[in-house]
Specification:
The protein is an alpha+beta fold and 380 residues long. Helix content is 46%, strand content 20%. It has a domain of 154 residues: Rod shape-determining protein MreC, domain 1 (Thrombin, subunit H, Beta Barrel). It has 5 helices and 12 strands. The protein has a 6-stranded antiparallel barrel. It has a 6-stranded antiparallel β-barrel with strand order 6-7-8-11-10-9. A hairpin with a 7-residue loop joins strand 1 and strand 2. Pfam families: MreC.
């Protein structure tokens, strides 16, 4: 009978043989996968099968990470929110400043081009504030007499006329705007050449073109420019544009409502023009016929008064001579009565005295009549 060990205690290949076999197998698999990627498909199948197990194993880690994110304090979030809001406000201010600077740059460039095209001297200025009186259209600029600002100088922008300097201080000046009710500018219609004067209105929102006959050719949309006839505003500066024309049969003049071309209240930088008045002085007015006749009549009346005064003085001198002559005759008669023996000698002596008295009376009469030859106001 053959003896064999039980199956539990049966032994296969030796442990060393199995170790060598599996080592060789592992090396072969490594070399084949590294060289020929033979196990790529097997690896993909195993990874897809093990993915649910991997996600299930990572669930505790995900829960911990979520709890850590929720542990961020509200103070940190509020601080970050405040920083973002501050940055947003700064960016908004910078954007607004950039837009304002761009608009100001465009405005200044237009003013620079205007000053280059103008033939008159100009001085840039900036509006500081409005005047205290709310019923007048006036502003104050930061230039005065020390900078060369003169009273009556026109004030313009790149769009047109906006006012005139009406008061000058050492370092400031007051400008009356074009829309003020007391401001007047001589203008002409660019299309027809019709000249007139434009005034402001009490409301200060429009302009009134006055002294325009009903028969005048004025249309809506006509442009008005300075005529230059006053010697203050240079000719050709834009002033306003006609927006409405009302012609009524019961009036001699039409009502023409205009709108300023320039932004009267919206301007900040402006130019003050220095205009030299080259207009010759107005000739003297010729007197009319009535004035000439009145002057001639007054001259004739003065001559007649002088002649009457001279005749009156001469009559007074003659009366005095007669009185002197009578007094001399009386004295001669008395002397003749006292000396009757020498009548001839007395007569002879009286004759020269009489002649001398006459000659003395003549210079006296001439002397009395000389200073009263002409009455006051009479011509020689």
């Amino acid at each position: 009978m053959e003896y064999s060990p039980p199956p539990l205690f049966k032994q296969g290949p030796s442990a060393l043989a199995r170790l060598v076999f599996f080592v060789v197998l592992a090396l072969a698999l490594l070399i084949s996968d590294a060289r020929f990627q033979t196990l790529e498909i097997v690896r993909g199948v195993l990874g897809a099968g093990l993915y649910p197990l991997q996600r299930a194993a990572l669930v505790p880690r995900d829960i911990f990470m979520g709890a850590a994110d929720l542990a961020v304090t509200s103070a940190t979030l509020r601080n970050e929110n405040d920083k973002l809001r501050t940055r947003d406000l700064q960016m908004s201010q910078q954007a607004n400043t950039a837009a304002s600077l761009a608009a100001e740059n465009t405005h200044l460039r237009a003013l620079l081009q205007l000053s280059q095209h103008l033939t008159t001297q100009s001085l840039p200025a900036e509006i500081q504030y409005d005047t205290r009186d709310p019923f007048t259209q006036k502003v104050v600029i930061g230039r005065g007499a020390q900078q060369g600002i003169q009273n009556g100088s026109p004030v313009v922008t790149e769009d047109g006329v906006i006012g005139q300097v009406t008061r000058v201080f050492p370092l400031q000046a007051e400008v009356t705007l074009l829309t003020d009710k007391d401001q007047a500018v001589p203008v002409e219609i660019l299309r027809t050449g019709l000249r007139s004067v434009i005034y402001g209105t009490p409301k200060g929102d429009s302009l009134d073109l006055r002294f325009v006959p009903i028969s005048a050719d004025v249309q809506t949309g006509d442009e008005l420019v300075t005529s230059g006839l006053d010697g203050v505003y240079p000719p050709g500066l834009p002033v306003a544009k006609v927006v409405r024309v009302d012609k009524q049969a019961d009036t001699a003049f039409a009502r023409v409502i205009c709108q300023p071309v320039a932004a009267v209240r919206g301007a900040r930088q402006l130019l003050v023009l220095h205009v030299v008045n080259d207009v010759p002085p107005r000739p003297a007015d010729e007197p009319d016929a009535a004035t000439v006749a009145k002057d001639a009549k007054s001259k004739k009346g003065g001559k007649a008064d002088a002649k009457g005064a001279a005749d009156k003085n001469a009559a007074k001198a003659g009366d005095r001579n007669a009185a002197d002559k009578t007094a001399a005759d009386k004295s001669a008669a008395k002397s003749a009565e006292k000396a009757p023996a020498k009548p001839a000698a007395t007569d002879k002596k009286a004759a020269p005295e009489k002649k001398a008295g006459k000659q003395a009376d003549k210079p006296a009469a001439a002397k009395n009549a000389k200073p009263q030859q002409a009455a006051p106001g009479a011509q020689p």
